[in-house]
Amino acid sequence: MKEHHTKIALLKHLSDGEFHSGEALGDKIGISRAAISKHIKGIQEWGVDIYRVQGRGYQLAQQLELLDEDVIKGASDNSTISVIPVIDSTNQYLLDNVNNLESGSVCLAEYQSRGRGRRGRQWVSPFGSNLYLSMYWRLDAGMAAAMGLSLVVGVAVVEALEELGINGIKLKWPNDLYFNDKKLAGILVEMSGQAGGAANLVIGMGLNIAMESGTDNIDQPWTSLTQVSPDPLPSRNTLAKSLIEALRSSLIDYEQNGMNEFVPRWNRLDNFLGRQVRLIIGPREIEGEVLGIDEQGAVVLKTEQGIQSFIGGEISLRKND
Ligand code: ATP
Ligand code: BTN
Known about the structure:
By secondary structure, the protein is α+β, with helices and mostly antiparallel strands. It has helices at residues 3-14, 22-29, 33-45, 69-73, 90-97, 146-163, 225-228, 236-257, 262-269, and strands at 50-53, 57-60, 81-83, 86-87, 106-109, 111-112, 130-139, 170-172, 176-179, 182-195, 198-208, 276-281, 284-293, 299-303, 306-310, 315-319.
C-alpha cells in the first residue's frame, strides 16, 4: 500500500470522531503500533490536528468529512470527477491529462503539496479543511475569451454560495473571493495549449472552509467560510457538488452569450466598487476609484487622467483607503 493510502485509511477510521487506540488501528489496517505512530505524525504534517491521550488513543481535534466522488457526482452526472486525496496540485494534474479528458472533467484533493496561486505563488492547502477543485474546460472561442471567463467563474462561485444561504462574499478583480476585506478563495486559470482555434484551460479554485492550522505562510489577511456564516455550513461534498454545477452552467452560458450579462452581476459583488485602489503593473502604480468592470473584463478606474481600463495577467489590485 502506498504511504499516503495508509494515512487515508487511518483518517477514515478516525473520521468518526471517537478515540481509537494505536493497537486497534494497527489491527484494522494490518500494521504495527509503531507504524501507526509514524503515520499519525505524517498526517499531522499535512495540517490535521490529532490528539493522543494516554490509555485512550488517538482522536481528531476537529470533525472531518472526507470528499466522496459518488456523493459529489450524484446519480445523473456521467462526467469525470476524480478525488485524489493527496496531490501536488489539482491544476497540474488536469494540465498533465488534458489529452485524455473531456471538457468539464474535475479533480479535487484533500491536500496539495504544491498548491499554487498566480505567478508561482504558493496556495496553502492543509488536509481536509478546505476545497481544492480544478476543472478542465475546452474554450472554443480561444485564448482571447479566457480573461472574461476567469471573471465569470468568480461570479458563478459567489452566486452559488448565496444560493446555499452564504451571504456577504465579494469579488476582488480579477479573481479572488473576499469577505470583510480578507481573502477567502482564489481562482487560477491556466492554459495547456491551443488545439485548432480552441484553448485548453484549467480553472482551479481554492476555497477556505474551516482552515485553522498550517497557515504560517499566508502573508496577507485571510478568512474561512466558517467566519462568513453564523449558520452551520453545508457539507464539503455538498459545496463541491454545487460549485461544480455552477461552474459548468456559467461557462456554457458565457460561451453562448458572452460577457454582457455578467458585467452587472460582477459589479454588484465587487468588493472595491466606489473605493480607492492602487493597481500594480510591473514597476508602475496607478491610483484611482473603481468604477467596475467592462465587457472585455478589464477593471475600470477613475484616475487623475480620466476614466481608464486595465486588463492583463500581470496586474495586481490593492486597496488604497
Ligand atoms: P494578486 O492580486 O496579484 O492576485 P495575491 O496576493 O492575491 O495577489 P495570488 O497569487 O492571487 O496573490 O494568491 C497567492 C497568495 O494568496 C499567496 O501569496 C498568499 O498571500 C495568499 N494565500 C495562500 N494560500 C492562501 C489560502 N489558503 N487562503 C488565503 N490566502 C492564501
Ligand atoms: C490565487 O489566488 O492566486 C489563486 C489560487 C488558486 C488555488 C487553487 S487550489 C486548486 C488549484 N490547484 C492549484 O494548485 N491552484 C488552484
